[in-house]
Every structure is written in structure tokens, then in C-alpha cells.
């Protein structure tokens, strides 16, 4: 009974995002965009939207792997949108991250600290490219990640423009299908790729299919948790507890 709760008109949302990207760049008097691509659905969808919004020569794609898991997916996307090879830069962040991990004496078992370093190193590189090219950094965050606080502050959360942040993850899947994102990417398990075999679902303890309607009812519709549970969402408290635990990320830095 909840199947249509978050259904979108993909064509209308695409047109809305295209207009948003164009207007934002015009207002900032900037023509170019830098986007980090991971091989996941959010960055792929963002790239397809950018292609529909601005000239291809103004899109600069940066692939920053620590592991090389997604190289074939990256190549498939780049070929499909016909991005010139000179506009794709691949830089392994492994030597930089490993050096920092050693300097900071981060234990091997502390994968979260290491993952945070990886996310922030990536953003340092993306912003350096943006400075060099006089470009905006395009973020790839969705509304599910935003509400859950499932991001690294000053890492994957840092950006200049966020085309997808108003859409829940399951809605991004709808948009990706409409845009023609390769099925291999749509079928891939969501992952921040911050350690071996990491998946979002394992780390969160629930799937986006479970989380999205609960987040929508709680944050958008302001329905209390107990009432959401009565609608058949038995894990509502677990999902909202996760979001509340990370809600400080939306408030910090604290100021007078």
C-alpha cells in the first residue's frame, strides 16, 4: 500500500533539475562544473543530468579511487555520454590516504577514521580542480543520506551545487532509469566505497527501500513515529533513531 508514496514524474523532475543547474551557473557567472564520480548511482545520475544541462566541454569528471572496484563502470558511463578523455581525470588517493593514516597513527581496525580521511582527501582534490578550472563542485547527495546524516562532514557532504539533495534515494533510482543510466550501476549495491566490501545497507542496518517512506512521513509530513509504525513501518524507530543520532551534523558548528 506504500508503493506510490514516493513516486515521481521523472520527466518533470529532470526538467526541474536542468533549469536549476542552468540558473545556478548563470547566477554565479560560472560555466564549468567538477563532479567526482564513484561508479555509484548518485554520481552517475548527477553526471547524466549535467550532460543535459550544460555543454559537454564544461563538465570535468574526477575519479578518485582508493580501491579500483568500479573502473569498468566508470568507463561504461564515460563512453555512453561521449565525454572526451581529456575531461576525465583519475587519481589514486591511496598514497595520500596511507601517508595520512600513518602520520595520524590511525589503527587498521579504525575503518571509520580512515574512511573519513578518504572522503576529505577526495574533497580537497575536487576543490583544487574547481579552483584551477574556475568551476563549481557538483555534489551527489540525496535526501535519504541528508536526513540520516550518512555523510562525512567536509568530505562527501561538501559541494557548491546539489542537484539531487531534494530527492530520496529510491526516487534517484527512478530518475536514473529515465535518464538511461546503465543497468549495471542501477543494480549495484549502494556503497561509499570507504573500505573493502562496504555497503550502505550493512552500515545503516536497513535498506533505503525501508528507510525512505519512514523518513518522508517523519520529516516531510511531520507524522509521529508511533503513527508511522501503525501504518506498517515496524522499523520506524530504528530509522529515526539513526537520523536523530546524526542530526548534530546539520547544526554544527555551534555558535553564539
Question: How would the blueprint of this fold be written?
Answer:
Layout (H helix, E strand, L loop, with lengths): L9 H19 L3 E6 L3 H13 L5 E5 L7 H11 L6 E3 L3 H10 L7 H23 L1 E4 L4 H6 L20 H11 L3 H4 L13 H5 L3 H13 L4 H6 L5 H10 L11
Parallel strand pairs: 1-2, 1-4, 2-3
Helix pairs in contact: 1-2, 1-7, 2-7, 4-5
Apparent shape: globular
Integer tally of domains: 1
**In what order do the strands lie side by side in the largest sheet?**
3-2-1-4
Q: Which percent range describes the beta-strand content?
A: 5-15%
> For the CA atoms, what is the radius of gyration?
18 Å
CATH architecture: 3-Layer(aba) Sandwich
Give the rounded overall mean pLDDT.
93
Q: So how many helices?
A: 12
Give structural notes.
The protein is of the alpha/beta class and 256 residues long. It has a 4-stranded parallel sheet, with helices on both faces. It is globular, with a radius of gyration of 18 Å.
Amino acid at each position: 500500500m506504500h508503493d506510490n508514496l514516493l513516486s515521481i514524474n521523472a520527466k518533470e523532475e529532470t526538467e526541474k533539475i536542468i533549469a536549476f543547474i542552468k540558473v545556478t551557473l548563470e547566477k554565479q557567472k560560472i560555466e564549468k562544473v567538477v563532479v567526482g564520480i564513484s561508479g555509484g548511482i548518485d554520481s552517475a545520475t548527477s553526471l547524466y543530468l549535467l550532460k543535459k544541462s550544460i555543454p559537454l566541454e564544461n563538465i570535468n569528471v574526477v575519479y578518485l579511487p582508493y580501491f579500483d572496484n568500479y573502473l569498468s563502470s566508470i568507463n561504461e558511463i564515460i563512453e555512453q555520454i561521449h565525454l572526451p578523455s581529456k575531461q576525465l581525470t583519475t587519481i589514486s588517493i591511496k598514497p595520500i590516504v596511507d601517508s595520512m593514516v600513518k602520520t595520524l597513527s590511525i589503527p587498521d581496525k579504525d575503518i571509520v577514521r580512515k574512511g573519513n580521511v578518504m572522503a576529505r582527501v577526495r574533497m580537497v582534490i575536487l576543490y583544487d580542480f574547481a579552483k584551477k578550472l574556475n568551476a563549481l563542485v557538483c555534489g551527489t547527495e540525496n535526501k535519504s543520506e541528508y536526513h540520516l546524516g550518512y555523510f562525512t562532514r567536509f568530505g562527501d557532504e561538501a559541494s557548491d551545487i546539489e542537484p539531487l539533495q531534494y530527492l530520496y534515494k529510491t526516487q534517484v533510482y527512478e530518475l536514473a532509469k529515465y535518464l538511461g543510466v546503465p543497468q549495471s550501476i542501477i543494480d549495484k549495491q549502494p556503497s561509499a566505497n570507504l573500505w573493502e566490501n562496504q555497503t550502505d545497507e550493512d552500515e545503516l542496518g536497513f535498506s533505503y527501500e525501508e528507510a525512505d517512506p519512514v523518513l518522508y512521513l517523519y520529516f516531510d509530513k511531520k507524522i509521529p513515529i508511533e503513527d508511522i509504525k501503525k501504518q506498517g513501518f515496524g522499523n520506524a524507530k530504528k530509522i529515526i533513531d539513526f537520523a536523530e543520532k546524526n542530526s548534530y551534523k546539520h547544526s554544527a558548528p555551534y555558535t553564539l
